[in-house]
# Entry
Amino acid sequence: MIDFKNVNKLLGGRDILKDADFRINKGERIGFVGPNGAGKTTVFSMICGDMSPDKGEIIKPEKARIGILRQQLGFFKEEQPLIEYVMTASGELPAIQKQLEEIEARLNSGEAADEQTLNELGRLQSAFEHLGGYDMEHRAAAALAGLGFPEENFRKPMGEFSGGWQMRACMAKVLLGEPDILLLDEPSNYLDIPAVEWLQRKLKTFEGTLLLISHDRYLLNSLTNITLEINGGRVTRYPGNYSYYVKEREGRRLQAEALKKNTEKRKKELQDNINRFRAKATKAAQVQSWIKMLEKIEDVTIPEDLHFQGRIRIPEPPDCGSEIMRLEKITHSYDGTKVILKDVNLSLQKGDKLGIIGYNGMGKSTLLKIIAGRFEASEGMRRPGHKVIIGYQAQEFAELLPAEQTAFDVVKTAAIGGDVPSQRIREILGAFGFSGEAAEKQCKVLSGGEKIRLCFARIFVNPPNLLILDEPTTHLDVSAREMLQEAIRTYKGTICLVSHDMEFLRGTAETILEMSSQKTRLFLGNYDYYKEKTALEQQEEQPKKKETASGEPTKLNQKEQRREKARRREEMAPEKRRLEREVAKLEKEIEKGEAEKAILIEQLSNPTPDTDFSTLQKQLKALDYDISKATLAW
# Structure
């Protein structure tokens, strides 16, 4: 479907692609992986035609509709209502709707309906229906709701939303366009967990070709079946999802190491024989044979270990009391009106690893700042434990690093008192992977993984025993996330963190605090336990099965089980008949609605001088909504 043929691309003096030769087949679901800056986004830009290769060619189907979600916001009119912006995904549909409204306004004002006008009206009506104009708004609303927009915000101007919410609107627009080829560049960057789960379900049903750049292992594993690794100008294909890729790549690397070891051993044996017998005339032919064999042996290249960026060795936490922090009836509001937190109670014990989750806007970051003592709550009590020392990292950790400062300067500046010996600063930096000259690197040249290590070094120059992290994986590539996850897993202090990365939560948090609608609930288990518990609660909301008079489940033999099944069938028969009647009724409603819809469309396509176009349009829109509602219930 898309062929890269010997493509070369040079950016910033680096080979992004070097003689790249690969194919993307129709219907494939491909995850693009590789270090930050390797060229994944550049490949997307070349597929979309925003960039051209320096050499080689890219062959694409001419009529394929391509939809792309970029990491940067595209153009939009700030005064445009949200739902109207999303509906522009339909391309020519808004223009057709505008033309229809103009013709209808002229006819409703009393203008004579000549043959040319009526023919144009019929053509526009047919095009509008063909493009799904009558249900476009319903589909746009469904996408916006799935991505977390409340219905009352659908008509708000785009300019009133934050950058993160504007990115969600862009995503809704791209998904609504139903392209043949869908390219998503870091789609989960601004999404909370419920929105990520909705996106995953939505993309599961996408029938086109899916190309995904993501640092979210949950999305990569659940949505892709092919992995393309881009690194050092080379593109390598792996026939599986991200987990398969990690295992397969490591297997190939170990195999290459073993092959290189055996190759080097064989080369040494041949060279030793050549050196030993070179001077003997009787061995001249044999020596020439060995020389030819040595020349034919090719060097073995071992793939770079992408998953080693240095370890984070977090120091032992200072001793402290058993209770780290207590919050009682914490309530917080902005402007005295908008309540963000209400009556939050929490007790953090020594060694706890708490993960905080919930929709955006529920107050997760606010709660972290209150725990960290960054500002006071409007009401309630915050009581730190005995000898508790707090280390806090904000969500914008990377942006807050001074670009011109070196790693050494950053850590030295953070040291309390400012009189920490240089040798101690270098020991701390070394523990976080900045040994020797690496300590003199400026922040502006650091990778995402290096920045997270430097931020930890800055925190631990004054070792805390309570570590508070707000979205610590933001902008980190997969290997850096895995490195951080392992460090937190082995840390012996207390941790309180907010994250929307489900795999990261699974590997770090041992208890979960769920925040929703000014309520908090504590789950004494990891993220998987939380998911199981909430799923069970949803099941228990359904009517419970009848139990024995004593309230204890009865163990039945096979005969009794058959009787029990028959009894349940008899009990369910009235409900079954009711549902069958309801289904039949809905089918009739849908059939009737479709017939009425056909009549309305016929009236609009073949109007008379008395036709009231505005009324017919309103009737058609209402009828389409009723049909959609009945179909959903059916």
About this structure: The chain has four domains: 1-65+179-240, 246-296, 323-538, 579-606+613-634. Confidence is low (pLDDT under 50) at residues 552-556. The longest helix spans residues 558-605. Residues 246-296 form one domain.
